[in-house]
Amino acid sequence: MSRKPSRPTTTVDSGGQLLDTALIDVVRQAGASRGMFYVLSPTGEALWLVVVTGTPREIAAPWTRVGLADPIPVADAVRERRLVWVGGMEDAARRYPRLSLVLPYDFALAAAPVTSNGTVRGALVLLWPGLHAPGMSPAERAAMEEGCLRLGRILQVATDEGASLPPNLPRILAPLALGEATATAAFIDRLPGGSCAMDLGGRITFITPDAAELLGADAADLLGARPWEALPWMDVPEVEDRYRAALVSEQPTSFTAVRPPDTWLAFELYPDHSGISVRIIPSRPAESDNIAAQSVRSPGPSRATLLYQLMHMAATLTEAIGVQDVVGQAADQLLPALGAQAMAMMTAEEGRLKIVGHRGYSAALIERFDLIPLMSDTPAAHVLTTGAPSFFASFADLKRSYAAAVHQDDMASWAFLPLIASNRTIGTLVLAYARPRTFPPAERAVLISLAGLIGQALDRARLYDTKHRVARRLQEALLPAALPRVPGLSVVARYLPAGHGMDVGGDFYDLIRLDRTTAAAAIGDVQGHNIDAAALMGQVRTAVHAHSTVGAPPGDVLSRTNRLLIDLDPGLFTSCLYVHLDLGRQAACLATAGHPRPLLRHADGRTHVLHVPPGLLLGIDPEAEYPALEIPLPPGSVLVLYTDGLIESPGVDPDDAVAALARLVEDADPDDLETLADTLIEHAPGHGDDIALLLISPQQRGG
Length: 703
Prior knowledge:
It is a single chain. This protein is α+β, with helices and mostly antiparallel strands. Helices cover 35% and strands 26% of the residues. It is built from 21 helices and 29 strands. Strands 1, 2, 3, 4, 5, 6 and 7 form a 7-stranded mixed beta sheet that branches. Helix 1 (16-29) packs antiparallel against helix 6 (138-160), helix 11 (237-249) crosses helix 12 (303-317) and helix 13 runs antiparallel to helix 17 (441-478).
């Protein structure tokens, strides 16, 4: 079975060497200990880690894909287009609890967007040791800003040339050069004596005979190995955790452990940006800070690696929204951490096994097993109906249990895990491995725990998707399916839902034909993003429509709608802009209830903001009044009505945003409203709120 890459190819690999050099240079110039460089995915919804230096792959793996909505510094930096500084452990715990939970070590961090030609294309992240000052120095900031500019130029050139970045795992660069000193010399300079040196990946690169004797092993067997993998009694989470703490914080740490049967040893770890020097000396049992002995080495990922992944999974899945978000989070984290090559997630749907997401499996194989009956004799169906996990160390084991239902592919071992939520099995998670695996008890326990976390997240995600689907259909049903044709009037509308969260808002628009020469237009925004907001939007739109058709002037339309809203007492407020269009008089009369100011483009191209007399939001004061503004609206002019999602962006002054919108309108072709609407939507900042847009342009009679 062919395997698909974990992420699609994007355009940019000829600049790879330049990116590597630029990242190393900015790390050195900023005095940082490690750096990471991300590119924006083609969809603009995620950041992909492309190059990393000073960090082993095991620690970098959970951060290879970052959603723009994720509450972590690099996502904030890109989404808000600003430098984000995290000044230590307490700062991280307060502002970024997920980051602090997964990496509970002391370090400083800076993240900044990488742009070219005004477009965000990626992000740069730098880390410093925990002893760094609370703030970022001017020299560090300048080095980072210059590094972002350099990386942006490289990306722009590579993109222009149609090059492509590596599509799968990020490149892990070696630590900064040590000059003429060898690794052994650097170790001796740091910590002379009977000890050992470890590289950034935790592998022993140098060991003295005395240290090997204390560890009870031959030096040749230890070189190139991680201590917790080569020595069964060191395979406990605390040992690898102390290594991670030293590596990330670059501060010394220590612990004691017992080598069976009763030899106590003290370990002192001294890190820098190139590795860790470890001093090992005989010791006595300590009342604290000691690690119990273990006698059996378990195959597969170390326990610390699995527990690290369990913690990260727990943190990220609490923020997963829809089903596909859960699938993506699980695949991004589980496959690299567990060494698995493929994953499939399935649930029960009308008596059949529905595959809701997969990674690493071919489309042909997924199609073969999608929607098979729950009563079929397959391991996935068996797990879903019984709630009992199944593990198969080889294809022979799988064939022996399910002779008629299995299909040989290039996988060697499988884990079929129940997805459980509220004490019921809601689905099956399949993990497939390219190499044989025995699945010892400790690993089985962790895999089942991970599947339990995924099951809970999947259950929440399915509920979200259901509510979202219902609310979206309600919202779409309440918006006009098509605008009425009004002779002498050209009108174009756009509606774009929000890009995250419940994604259902109360933005609405309407065009109402009143008679042969008059019409009305309305646009509004109900507070909130949920079913209540969508339902209230329908009521407001209906009220505005009803009051306009009886000939009420703009101020009265809003006053009557306001009183209706207060009578309904929905607990939500609404902004609204109402326009009465008199094509015979070539004029328009506008009234507003706390809505963003409209724009008017004159026939000669001049564009300015219309200062409609302010009125309170609907639903606040039953006695509120809504004064009107009358303006000329001759043929060739364009009236631009919009909701705040079109202009609002964190850190941007609203007046500046409206001015920028006016410039776009002024530079556009007034005879092509469709293109103008697309341009305005395209330049909308972010996608955190709904957007409604209505463009109105009177035409010459008969034109």
